[in-house]
Amino acid sequence: MISGLLFARAMPAGSWVAFCAVVLAAISALLALKKKTGLWLATFAASTVLGFWFYGTARLPTQPTSDQLALPPREALVEFEIQRVMQAENTYGNSTGVARVIDASPTSRLKKGSLIYFRLSRDDTTRLNIIRGLAIQVIGVLHPIPEEAVPDSFDAYLQETGIHYRFEQTGGVRLLREPTAFQKFCHHTNKKFQDHLRLGEPDASQLSQIYIAMLLGEKTELSDEQTDRFRMTGTMHLFAISGLHIGVIATVIWQVLLLFRLPSKVRPLIGLPLLYFYVEITGGAPSAVRAFLMVTFFWVSMAVQRQRSPLSALAASAVLVLIIQPLQLWQMGFQLSYLVVISILLFGLPLREVLWPVLRPNKFVPESNWSTYAKIKFWVMDKLLLLVVISFAAWLASAPLSAGFFGFIAPYSVIVNILLVNLAALVISGGVISLTVASLGLGGLAGFLNHSAWVGISIMDGLVRMNLTLPWAIIHCPEFPTIVSYLCVLCFMASIILIGNKHSPLLRFAVPPLVVIFALTLGLLWGSA
User: Fold this and answer.
1) Do 175 and 72 belong to one domain?
2) Which pLDDT tens digit goes with each residue over 11-24?
3) How far is CA 348 from the centre of its chain?
4) Which residues contact 285 (CB under 8 A, 6 or more apart)?
5) Strand, coil or helix: what is 158?
6) Which of 121, 180, 226, 453 could join 430 in a cystine, given CB atoms 3.0 to 4.6 angstroms apart?
7) Per UniProt, what is the membrane topology (predicted)?
8) DSSP state of 225
9) Which residues, other chains included, contact 298 with Cβ-Cβ below 8 Å and sequence gap of 6+?
């Protein structure tokens, strides 16, 4: 599937590709019936590659040529529908976000369905409620984004998401279509939740900004200093609604449904709509949708009494995401999220299974004879080991891409994330409970819960600040080659899969980290040469 999409990005497929894909799929089906496994697998793989080559050609947007991006800015009349709001209103009274083009003047070089980054001026004559789903017609200036954008810049991020033009309003705005009632409701609920999370806020405190950013994904609430602090320590993922947030909230919802003793087949019918509502309230970010799909597949497998497989749920969510939005394959968020989870499942959790029998306390004492202290020690060591291996596996998968695309390596993030992820999970859980009781009219209790969350946030912020004061906390590597990053990830994953259970545990769990350390060292030397 991925190979087919890569082919489509590099070279559009002709009709002959679709014909070959259909023929190979038919042959594959016949071979499957005859139980010829080897030939069936080969023909199925070939038909899949060709099929997604053709599918990618039809679905992936056509990239502007270098000559088109070199043209000067020009005025254009553009009709677009807002897909994502980045800033509803900044300090200069402007609104920014991402929109999909409905129609544009012929001289604009924009095609229907393409994405643009917009900036609207919010004067009194054009004061619209800028939310997802709003369709408007605007006169403005179209600025091409340079083809060679600076790595880790905002322009580079826009290019990753398939955006090649900035659009700045210079003229009037005409309303084409209002957002749907559901989109308006989600926007209203988001604003209401922000007020709930500010209940009991101390004067001159910036903790509520971090709180709102963490619970609702409103990263614009963070100051520039806070953003830089969390980004440089490799902990900015705490403010992107993703697997951590969806996982914690899904766990809270599931536990509440268990308290009501609902049948396993009924729980997903109640829990998934609530979880999807949260995804929509927070803006429907791609990372949140990916995590929601993974939870959906996992919960559905539990409801139908199938064997639960996180890896299968992960693969199914990735396939569905790429079918719906194939362009996500080139987005760093997609690559990081799936690589990190794969690393945790194939390296981190198996490493725990090997280490736990060795480190397990009270090995020679029957569990019935354990004292309270022994039970607490057992529980703490079990959870601590799980956190260590998860954080280590996540760092191994993310460090090469962080070096190549963001220009820094955070060696201590392995330790910092162990503490921060736990604190963040407590803060998110407390925030969900606070929003629930505030919605029921219990503002005083919600304010109390907010204070307890702010204590956790204060500790988190202090840990991040302390981390930045340590020597070698951040290794800057702006010239780290991206080719080394991808080769490192490929070799890391290959070493995990190829070694597997066939060799000794020492070899199985020593080689992958050594591959990453060697590649990072090579990239640093290459970049400094």
Assistant:
1) yes
2) 877 777 776 777 77
3) 20
4) 84, 217, 240, 241, 242, 279
5) helix
6) 453
7) Multi-pass membrane protein
8) H
9) 308, 310, 313
